[in-house]
Design brief:
The protein has helices spanning about 5-15, 20-30, 45-50, 50-70, 85-100, 115-125, 125-145, 145-165, 170-185, 190-195. With about 220 residues, the chain is an all-alpha fold. Helix 1 packs antiparallel against helix 4 (about 50-70), helix 3 (about 45-50) packs antiparallel against helix 4 and helix 5 (about 85-100) runs antiparallel to helix 6 (about 115-125). The radius of gyration is 17 Å and the shape is globular. The N and C termini lie far apart (about 50 Å). Residues about 210-215 have low confidence and may be disordered.
């Protein structure tokens, strides 16, 4: 990497580190979102604790920051004519942004799970696949009402689409797809434990919460 690429990679991390849910919870409600609900600084916990309006806002901003960070390559003219190297650099930028979301320097390195930022990254690199993953997420969410399961299914779907449906030949892209699936599952390891124990929270979509889900 040259100095410009190093600086852009650092910038991608700083963008990914923007703790949207924490800033919203502190400025609008005077609380730290990490002290409530699941303790996670992500859109899902914001949705549960602060409501759909702010949960949706946090999700949109987290998606946008992933897309912006991944698109920082545009400031280097060389990448306009070299698709392979451009894709590789976009993967680096995107993954660094996701790490920033999970371990944000602006919030004591305690962030979210990175799913929304991963989505923004995928939209910037491969929008068609990303949109299919959104469909998988929504179908799973409607069927199960578990955001955690929906996120993991979308991450796994991304890997399957890249490896077996689109038959991507570029090694770095295939590795990226595998990393995405593994990262989504890893960041949801506590959710997996709660699912196995039968106490994972569901999201009320079209009806009120079940009495058994109320705390």
């Amino acid at each position: 990497m040259n100095m410009t690429e190093v600086l852009l990679t650092l910038l991608a991390y700083l963008i990914g580190s923007i703790p949207t849910s924490i800033w919203v919870s502190k400025t609008k409600f005077g609380i730290d979102i990490r002290d409530y609900g699941s303790g996670n600084a992500g859109a899902t916990n914001t949705y549960r604790v602060l409501g759909p309006k702010w949960g949706t806002f946090v999700m949109i901003i987290d998606v946008i920051k992933g897309a912006i960070a991944t698109s920082l390559w545009v400031s280097i003219p060389y990448y306009y004519t070299n698709e392979l190297h451009r894709t590789n650099f976009m993967i680096v930028l995107g993954l660094v942004a996701v790490l920033g979301h999970i371990y944000p320097i602006w919030a004591g390195f305690r962030g979210g799970k990175g799913v929304a930022t991963l989505l923004g990254m995928a939209l910037a690199i491969q929008p068609a696949v990303a949109l299919l993953c959104i469909v998988v997420f929504l179908i799973t969410l409607v069927a199960t009402r578990f955001v955690s399961v929906s996120s993991m299914m979308a991450g796994i779907a991304f890997m399957i689409l890249i490896l077996f449906i689109y038959h991507e030949k570029e090694t770095s892209y295939r590795l990226f797809a595998i990393i995405v699936a593994l990262m989504v599952v890893f960041t949801h390891r506590n959710n997996i434990k709660r699912l196995l124990q039968g106490n994972e929270n569901k999201v009320p979509l079209f009806k009120k919460k079940d009495k058994s889900e109320e705390k």
